[in-house]
Amino acid sequence: MRYSRLKIIFPIGLFVALFLDGSLSNVFAGRLFTYPYTSVLHLVLLWLVFAVFLDDRDDLATGIWAAFVGLVFDWYYTGIIGVYLISLPLIVYLCRQVKPWLDLNFLTLLMVYIINLTIVEAFAYTWYSLCDVVNSGLADFAVYTLGPTIALNLAIFVILYYPVRRLYFSVN
Length: 172
Description:
It is a multi-pass membrane protein. Keywords: Cell membrane, Cell shape, Membrane, Transmembrane, Transmembrane helix. The chain is mainly alpha-helical. The chain has a single domain (2-171), classed as Arp2/3 complex 21 kDa subunit ARPC3, CATH 1.10.1760. 78% of the residues lie in helices and 0% in strands. The protein has seven helices and no strands. It has helices at residues 2-27, 29-32, 43-54, 62-78, 83-98, 106-130, 138-171. The longest helix has 34 residues, at 138-171.
């Protein structure tokens, strides 16, 4: 019974994260996107990483949900189909591959999240460069986008880790 609640809570949390990604980015645009710095919220990515690592049974269809929410994210927020449609399921796949070898604690999950943020942002930068949406150099991307994005999302990770962990373990 408790596990079936997780199958309901996971997609609800995923769509709340999707909504908050866009809404908070819009509300705090003056702070997040001040030239030359850009800080991108990745609450959907955070929710997916939590789902992969905190789900004991590995029964959630996180890969399918990641592809669906990636398509919605691309369609609604970016307008360029493929960036998150490909990168989010890729992250879920990579996380599932490394999960058996990791000791799941706060610092390990923090490091995995940093790596995942870097992969998603680098993938988005490469995709946007190929589509001629971005024309800045790799060094500018690393300093003005990747660094602030990692700093912002790590702060959010630290704030949300224990409440989300508690949520998963109470219904799992």
